[in-house]
Amino acid sequence: MKNLSILLVEDHRQLAQTVLEYLEQEGASVDYAGNTRLARELVQEHHYDLMLLDVMLPGEDGYSFCQYLRKELALDMPVVFMTARDQLEDKLEGFDRGGDDYIVKPFALPELSARVTALVRRQRKEVTANTLQIADLELDPARQEVRRDGQLLKLSPTAFRILRILMRESPKVVSREQLEHELWGDLVPDSDALRSHLYNLRKAVDKPFEHALLNTLPGVGFSIQAAPETAQ
C-alpha cells in the first residue's frame, strides 16, 4: 500500500472520508472526487495506480465512467467497483464495462486494502519482454498490447493477464483454479468474475475473426490453441 497513488470516486462523503483516512494511514496517497466530472479532470492531469469507483454516482454512473476510461482514454489502471448492488447482473455489467474487482458495501477496510495491494502488485509484476504468439494472435508484455491479424485489440487489464497466462501455457490446458490463483491469489471473488472476464476476452479475441483460438473444456479448464487450419 505504501507509495500507491489512488483516486477515490464516491459521492457518500462520510464513507469517502473513512476510506480515504484509512488508506492514507496505510501509506497511500489518495485523491478524492465526489462525481465523475471532477474525476475526468483528475485522471487526465495525474497518474494513478488504481481507482476505487462507486457505481451509484450523481449524473454519470460508475459503469459508464469506467467504460469511458477504457475506450476513450485507453487507461489500463485497475478499477475496483464499490457498491451496495450485489446482484449477479450488476457484477457482470461491472466486469463487462472494464472493472477488475467488485467489492460490496458494507465492506471491511482491511479487505479493501488487501484487494488494492494485490491488484496493483500483480499489474506491476515484471513480465518477460518476449512477445507471445499463437497463430495470428500476438501479445507484447512490454507494450501491454495485443494484436490479432495486425489489428490492435482493446482488453481490460484483467483480460490481458488472463490471455498472457493462457498464451504462456499454450497448448496446455489451464485449470480454473490456476487462473484464479494467478489473478487474485487468496482473494478470489465469486465464480462469476472469471466467467465474465473470459466472456469479454472471447468477444475481443475470437468473435471478430473467422477462427476461434480460445477453448473451454468443461470441468477441466481453458486453453489458447491455433485452429487446425493455422497450426504450424
Could you write a compact summary of the structure shown?
With 232 residues, the chain is an alpha/beta fold.
The CATH fourth-level homologous superfamily of the largest domain: Response regulator
Sheet-strand content, in percent, reads 15-25%
The oligomerization state is single chain
Compute the average pLDDT: 87
Overall geometry: globular
Order of helices and strands: EHEHEHEHEHEEEEHHHEE
CATH classification, class level of the largest domain: Alpha Beta
Total number of domains: 2
Biggest sheet: strands side by side, in what order?
2-1-3-4-5
Low-confidence stretches: none
Describe the structure.
- The protein is α/β, with parallel strands linked by helices and 232 residues long.
- The protein has two domains: 4-124, Rossmann fold; 132-224, Orthogonal Bundle (Arc Repressor Mutant, subunit A), CATH 1.10.10.10.
- It contains eight helices and eleven strands.
- The chain has helices at 13-25, 36-45, 62-71, 88-96, 109-124, 157-169, 176-184, 191-205; strands at residues 5-9, 29-33, 50-54, 79-83, 101-104, 132-134, 137-140, 145-148, 151-153, 214-217, 221-224.
